[in-house]
Design brief:
The protein has 13 helices and eight strands. It folds into two domains: 3-212, 3-Layer(aba) Sandwich (Rossmann fold); 225-310, Orthogonal Bundle (N-(1-d-carboxylethyl)-l-norvaline Dehydrogenase, domain 2), CATH 1.10.1040. Helix 1 crosses helix 4, helix 9 crosses helix 11 (261-268) and helix 12 runs antiparallel to helix 13 (289-302). It starts with a strand and ends in a 16-residue tail after the last helix. It has 318 residues and is α/β, with parallel strands linked by helices. An eight-stranded mixed beta sheet has the order 3-2-1-4-5-6-7-8, sandwiched between helices. The structure holds nicotinamide-adenine-dinucleotide. Nicotinamide-adenine-dinucleotide (NAD) binds at residues 8-13, 32, 36, 121-124, 128, 131-132, 149-151, 172-173, 175, 268-269, 271-272.
């Protein structure tokens, strides 16, 4: 795969695009408006810096026995025998490739022309995704593969709207992709097995570990576990059982996990958490638990407290 198009320049879209650029792919972001460019450019800068900082910090892990557990696996292919000089070379090359290989385009036709793969990473909103697939279906080259990074939606829901069901499937990344380098590959019953294999190979090409799902599953592997966990924490908060800091502290102390659910929500981004909440059947029933959770999240979003990404969420990162 040479030309990669990323549709959507949010938290995950920017990380995916940078990871593809870092691994030598030509990346075009398709964005819908000038104001989207204004929101995506600082995110690209933010994540590029974070990736290069993590490379720099990895030098301090050389010789440390926990280094092999903590190095940024998407940025350093093999930790065995790594040297500070080799990491310096990666920083230099990474800085260049994450600058030179990234383009932004508002014209969808121009953006997708000649694309080997289009990675849709737009908001978790089925209607918006369908709308964009319908616009894109007649603009894509015959051979272009289309994947979605959706966290909770099934590819079979969208397959017919893409106009290329056999070449459409899910490729789901985890947040902080350059460290947590999982790529869940999930087809729908109409996905061509050869295309599925190509996407598995592409995931390796961009330094991810491909994880193959044998059938459709809402939430894939990761979110089948993560979403109920985060929902349980939000229920404790909305029911005023305990505050987010206490809930996180409980989880960290009792399990030894490095992060609690609200620290994870800050990484995921509160907008994504809100979109997932809004799809719960009772989210619009006044007074229901999910309705109250939705309102609490919306309050924070309206104040610009959407997570690490803006410097404030449940915690202050400024
Ligand atoms: N945040 C996470 O931790 C995470 C992890 C894995 C997968 N995902 C999935 O990745 C996708 C994107 O999530 P995110 O966290 O980056 O969201 P985000 O809210 O940060 O970004 C969404 C992007 O979609 C664009 N968008 C929204 N509606 C659009 C439309 N109608 N036309 C064109 N562009 C539109 C927005 O401008 C924005 O650039 C979702 O499907 C989400 O489930 C998110």
């Amino acid at each position: 795969m040479k030309k990669v198009v990323v549709a959507g320049g949010g938290v995950l879209g920017t990380q995916i695009g940078l990871m593809c650029a870092y691994t030598g792919h030509d990346v075009t972001f398709w964005l819908r408006s000038e104001s989207s460019i204004g929101r995506t450019t600082p995110k690209l800068d933010h994540y590029k810096k974070a990736m290069l900082n993590d490379l720099e910090a990895a030098k301090n892990l050389i010789g440390n026995p926990v280094g092999k557990l903590m190095y940024p696996r998407g940025l350093i292919k093999s930790w065995d025998g790594i040297t500070a000089e080799a990491i310096d070379d990666l920083i230099k090359a990474g800085e260049k490739s994450m600058t030179d290989n990234i383009h932004i385009e508002l014209d969808m036709k121009k953006a997708v022309e000649g694309a080997d793969i289009v990675i849709e990473s737009m908001a978790e909103n089925p209607d918006a995704k369908i709308d964009v697939y319908e616009k894109m279906r007649n603009l894509l080259d015959e051979d272009t593969i289309l994947v979605t990074n959706s966290s909770t939606l099934l590819p079979s829901t969208f397959a017919e709207h893409t106009g290329r069901p056999a070449k459409y499937l899910s490729l789901h990344f985890a947040n902080t992709i350059w460290k947590n380098n999982t790529a869940e590959v999930m087809g729908h019953p109409g996905t061509d097995p050869e295309i599925y294999k190509k996407v598995v190979a592409f995931a390796s090409e961009i330094n991810m570990v491909p994880l193959e799902l044998h059938k459709e599953q809402p939430g894939y592997i990761l979110n089948s576990m993560l979403v109920p966990f985060l929902s349980a924490a939000q229920a404790l908060w909305a029911n005023e059982v305990a505050d987010p800091k206490t809930i996180d502290l409980t989880w960290r102390l009792a399990t030894g996990a490095p992060k609690g659910p609200f620290e994870i929500l800050d990484i995921v981004g509160l907008e994504t958490a809100y979109n997932i909440n809004q799809m719960k059947p009772d989210a619009h029933d006044e007074g229901s638990l999910n309705n109250r959770i939705g309102k609490l999240l919306k309050e924070k979003i309206d104040k610009g407290e959407t997570g690490i990404n803006t410097g404030k969420g449940f915690y202050d990162y400024k």
